[in-house]
Amino acid sequence: MNSYTKFLCALIFFLCPVFSFAQDPYEKVFDLAKKLETSGSYSEAATEYKRYLFMQDYAAAAGKEGSHQIEALSFLTNYYSDCGQFPLAIDYNKQAINYSQNLQNTSEDVKLALHKKNILLQQKAAESQNFNLLYNTDIAAYISFPEFSEEIKLAANLACLHSYVYTHKWTMVKELTSQINSDYPDAISQEQLNQIFEELTALKQFKLKDPELAFYLSIIPGLGQLYSGNYKDALNAFLLDGSLLALSGYSLATLNFFDFFLLEMDATVRFYRGNMQNAQIEAIEYNNTKIKIHKDKLLNIIEEIQKN
């Protein structure tokens, strides 16, 4: 083999990988991202999916745009949603929605799923900040604009209902439940409807403990905790604070000011003040615990409806 032939073989050997990569670099990046996702390396997969999407900006200009944008964007949507970064997840999902509208071969089922995902993300984002969806523009558009299907409108209404329960808007929950049942008779079963109204009735009948009253009742040690439903702390406060008060009273009555000021006064004041503040906190916790029982039942019912 002469030197020219050797040079030519070597040149082909070194250039083959380059040509191979140049033929379809986008697919190679996407395949790498897919392998990382399958292996559970989600953070690294997210990086590669972003790289794939970044390369599409140049591919589109060259007329060589890939076909996996929606899949890549859907992964990033789910990844950031699982991380609790809902604004980022919403942004990627909206990009996927835009791609689905521009690609002619995108099925209606995929478009529907992307819109439903956006509704769910809007719900989670609002609830993560203890907001409801009353003034959410995306949800309002889904409910009001005629181009969206009845299935999407129902999903948006149920997301609103979920957020109203989450933020304790009980009157709005009742009104929206009745409206959904009227507009979409098959969406909520009679059993589920009865359960929702039963929980709302229980919440309406529930008498909240007054934290301020609990505070002042604790002037008598343990009475505030007793009012707040914490019988163990009530007994502890009565025995401990009552004993300190009795001891301090005895020292003052016997004119034993040395023991009172040096040993008893500071402890009595601190424990007595703590007893009153704890009674106030326990009244709030009592209210939250009781409300949470009914709230969780309502959320479970609505989530069951959302799955159907």
Question: Key terms for this structure?
Answer:
single chain, 308 residues, mainly alpha, 14 helices, elongated
Over the alpha carbons, how many angstroms does the gyration radius reach?
A: 32 Å
Low-confidence stretches: 6-23
Please work out how many helical segments DSSP would assign: 14
How many beta-strand runs?
A: 0
From the N-terminal CA to the C-terminal CA, the straight-line distance is: 73 Å
Name the overall outline: elongated
What does the average pLDDT come to? 84
What fraction strand? under 5%
Structural class designation: mainly alpha
Q: How much helical structure, as a percent, in the residues?
A: over 70%
Give the helices and strands as they follow along the chain: HHHHHHHHHHHHHH
* Main sheet specs: none
Description:
Helix content is 81%, strand content 0%. The protein has helices at residues 3-23, 25-38, 42-61, 69-82, 86-102, 108-128, 137-144, 150-166, 170-183, 190-205, 211-217, 223-227, 231-253, 257-307. The longest helix is centred in the last third of the chain and has 51 residues, at 257-307. Helix 8 (150-166) runs antiparallel to helix 14 (257-307) and helix 11 packs antiparallel against helix 14. The protein is mainly alpha-helical and 308 residues long. The model is unreliable at 6-23 (pLDDT under 50).
